[in-house]
Amino acid sequence: MLNNDRAARVRKNMKKAGLTQIVVSSTESVYYLTGVYVQPMERFLALYLTDDGEATLFANEIFGLASTPGLPVVTHRDGEDAVRDLAGAVRPGTLGIDKFLYSKFLIALMQARTDVKPTLGSAPVDLARMCKDEAEREAMRHASQVNDKVMGEIQKQVRAGVAENELAAEVNRLYRENGGTAGPQLVCFGPNGADPHHGGDKTVIKRGDSVIFDIFAPVGRYWCDMTRTVFFGEVSEKQREVYELVRRANEAAEAKVKPGILLSELDATARGIIADAGYGPNFTHRLGHGCGLACHEPPDVSGAMDIPLEPGMVFSIEPGIYLPGEFGVRIEDLVLVTENGGEVLNQFSKELTVIK
Ligand SMILES: [Mn+2]
Fold it and tell me: Most exposed among 21, 161, 315, 343, judged by the fewest C-beta atoms under 10 Å?
């Protein structure tokens, strides 16, 4: 069934972008518009949407979508030309293409229809997805409540002799117990925390380590994503200083969240606090990323994004300081932009915590 409210928003965005027809192929975007959730792997799935009301799903018959109520579905079989039917349906002229459509399908489409001019066409759906509607806001709140609970449980399991990958596996068990799905959790001890994307390996905890938990999973269809850093056994003066600095950067950026503020201003706020203390070069990534049906989705929260916050946006605020060979600290919450401010979706404490 086509979600008419969402399709109307996408069509409005198409008009602004000067697009009369688009092909939507990412799993999340097709789900957003139709409620159909399929991960097609190497096979073909595409929703063709026009500005004048047409909406047709093109899908491999193996997905079992032939009788989807309220949505025409054109199926093909394995071994057949997967884009044949779509190529027959699109109109001459400019055609917006999903950024995630495989080039093998795009090139086949271009060869079949030389009168069609493909252009990047994800923005109309991305911009609609960026501002969550009421049902989505509730789903995001729920996912982050689950994350708060998982964070509380996993911190109780920090103990002498434990390895990163044991805790990572336990995080996934806790997600499954609470309606979430497993994934590659980031659990980093001591110097491993200086690599922002270090995954949990066999490293065993040592007294005085910082312990980063960057944990994320879809709960239902919507993602949570939160990071906390704690210390094991004891905390040094330098660790304390860096921790409080990151926390101040996180809280200062969160306090600024309201409609109209630029995304780049949030990044500048956190980055300025860290740079003023001399750690600018050690904050190596953007402040945050949009989160929703995908863990990472528009908007970027970076210095390059001079676009204003709008109600319904959900993104992470996750400053970090990374000291190679020593330790790392990152603190991350998801924040929802409300009509007149910001709602931090994670309630889990940011007080400096030393686990004995
Ligand atoms: Mn994140």
Answer: 161
DSSP character for 285? S
pLDDT at 297 over 90: yes
pLDDT at 199 over 90: no
- Residue 316 CA to ligand 1 center (angstroms) comes to 6
Distance from the alpha carbon of residue 287 to the mean position of ligand 1, in angstroms: 9
Give 222 Cα–ligand 1 centroid separation in angstroms.
Answer: 14
B/e letters for 222-237, b = 16+ CB within 10 Å, e = fewer, are: bbbbbbbbbbbeebee
Element (H, E) at 120: strand 116-120
CA of 242 to the centre of ligand 1 (A): 20
Q: How far is the CA of 212 from the centre of ligand 1 (A)?
A: 13
Distance 172 CA to ligand 1 centre (A): 17
Nearest to 283 by CA among 269, 270, 300: 270
Q: What does the alpha-carbon distance between residue 240 and residue 59 come to, in Å, rounded to a whole number?
A: 55
pLDDT tens per residue, range 118-133: 999 999 999 999 999 9
Cα 185 to ligand 1 centre (Å)? 11
Q: Is the pTM of this model over 0.70?
A: yes
DSSP letter assigned to residue 62: G
- The separation between the first and the last C-alpha atoms of the chain, rounded to the nearest angstrom, is 54
User: Measured in angstroms, how far is the CA atom of residue 108 from the centroid of ligand 1?
Assistant: 36
Instruction: Give the dihedral sign, CA 230/198/300/96.
Output: negative
As a whole number of angstroms, the distance between CA 103 and CA 101 comes to: 6
Cα 216 to ligand 1 centre (Å): 8
Complete domains list, the chain, with CATH: 4-129 (3.40.350.10), 131-355 (3.90.230.10)
pLDDT for 192 equals: 97
Cα-to-centroid distance, 133 and ligand 1 (Å): 21
